[in-house]
Amino acid sequence: DIQMTQSPSAMSASVGDRVTITCRASQGISNDLAWFQQKPGKVPKRLIYAASSLQSGVPSRFSGSGSGTEFTLTISSLQPEDFATYFCLQHNSYPHTFGQGTKLEIK
Amino acid sequence: QVQLVESGGGLVKPGGSLRLSCAASGFTFSDYYMSWIRQAPGKGLEWVSYISTSGASVYYADSVKGRIAVSRDNAKNSLYLQMNSLRAEDTAVYYCARLLGGNWGQGTLVTVSS
Question: Mean pLDDT, to the nearest integer, of B69-93?
Answer without folding.
Answer: 98
